[in-house]
Amino acid sequence: MGQQAPVQADVVEKLVSLCKQRGFVYPSSEIYGGLNAVYDFGPLGVRLRRNIRERWWRRIVDLRDDVEGIETAILMNPQVWVASGHVQSFTDPLVDCTGTCRKRWRADHLADERRARDKPADAPGCPECGGALTEARQFNLMFKTFIGPVEEDAAQVWLRPETAQGMFVNFANVLNSSRQRVPFGVAQMGKGFRNEISPGNFIFRLREFELMEMEFFCKPGTDREWHEYWCRERLSWHVDDMGVREANLRLRAHEKSELSHYSTATSDIEYHFPFGWGELEGVADRTDYDLKTHMEHSGRDLSYFDVQTNERYIPYVIEPAVGVDRIFITLLVDAYDEEEVRGERRVVLHLHPDVAPVQVAVLPLSKKAELTERARRIEHDLRGNFATEYDETQSIGRRYRRQDEIGTPLAVTFDFDSLEDHAVTIRERDGMTQVRVPIDGLHAALRDQLGTFRTRAGQRAHGGG
Ligand code: ATP
Asked: What residue owns the CA closest to ligand 1's atom 21?
């Protein structure tokens, strides 16, 4: 992978305020002081999330012959989590500071936390205050809740910490109701919940978040090959479909000691965040662990019979798993840019035109009705083909700045001349160049310009431009 692109240390703080001000992300239940590591998404945030989900679904499900999509419930029979090993092993090691700050840490994150504070990774004591730490104890990350009116053990259920189990327990259902044969995959997206010990870095580590996961069932012995395939495929998606700069991404194979209880090999696609390299997506070889354990615990047969070779086996599984929120913060960090324009600071999000919440903004030059009525009509006409927004508030310069800040590639301005020449100005985000085009040909001109943006996004992601 190419040269690492520079990152600004304080970009996350800037993004937190931009996200709130522009309607991407709000702290959850903010008027009551919020809830730690839980966030709400505003009008632009929702658009960005939908684009992320749609691009993922398109590449993983729609464009392929060998993957089916499903949607399973958040609440599942509690036996699922006993069988999967989560009740026993979905734990993180927790240590407490006994010094002045009393902070709680994940024992396996201490070195990173010290490095983030410019301290030696192997320094003794608490990363924050240097105080003595307790022995590590295991802490289960699953949230408990109860079904029925009485809080008794029999009715206890868990909020799912991953969507994967919904796909394993439905393996036979999908196999019997679709025309798929191994190798094939089952994909879904949905909320997951983890009672994280040390959440933080804005929306990087949340307690409620959204997962997009795919379980790819393959013949034992072909799993390593498929693992490599899915690592390449997912890396390419982040670069080509999301426009993330390749230079800020790396693939890192887990050490044996890091592997989850179900995995023999996992590679993380990591992004170079301002706070260090962090996991963006995990691609795990889950072997036959899950199907096997569900066979044992449920007594149902989840093996596969290959009619071509007359063999019966339990498929191995390759799982690419990524969080919508993690992609969201990655896109913002990677796109964020500040520059000086005629003595003023301009903030721009260089978002890929297919993920940008608004693709085309329509702006009348003034609030005079003769302009606003026509501009509104143009915006309505464009809605079927582009993600649009209409804005008539404030000066035109300020409106351009706002669109730059939310990553809108194109702005169409309807001015007084437009009444005479039936033409409008298209202004583009990155170079701020403007062209005049007839209203008749506006659709085609916008399509062309977005095409140019796509090419440029590709060049930027691959290290050029
Ligand atoms: P870690 O070891 O950092 O806690 P993990 O390896 O257990 O994470 P996975 O189970 O591999 O995480 O999760 C798959 C993906 O889900 C991650 O790559 C990330 O994109 C997303 N994800 C996991 N946990 C969170 C979280 N708490 N908040 C937001 N996204 C998350």
From this structure: 323
Distance CA(215)–CA(227), nearest Å, equals 11
321's enclosing H/E stretch is: strand 316-323
Instruction: Write the residue with the smallest CA distance to atom 30 of ligand 1.
Output: 323
pLDDT digits (tens, 9 = 90+) for 1-31: 334 445 566 899 999 999 999 999 999 999 9
Phi, psi of 361 (to 5 degrees): -100, 140
In percent, the amount of the chain with pLDDT more than 70 equals: 98
Distance CA 117, CA 451 (A): 43
Q: Determine the distance separating the centroid of ligand 1 and the alpha carbon of 323, expressed in angstroms.
A: 7
Closest among 216, 236, 237, 238 to 227, alpha carbons compared: 216
Is the CB of residue 323 below 6 angstroms from any atom belonging to ligand 1? yes
**Residue identifier of the C-alpha nearest atom 25 of ligand 1:** 205
The domains of the chain, with CATH numbers, are 11-76+161-332 (3.30.930.10), 350-461 (3.40.50.800)
Q: Is 325 in the pocket of ligand 1 (CB under 6 A)?
A: yes
Predicted TM-score of the model (pTM): 0.94
- Residue 358, ligand 1, Cβ within 6 A: no
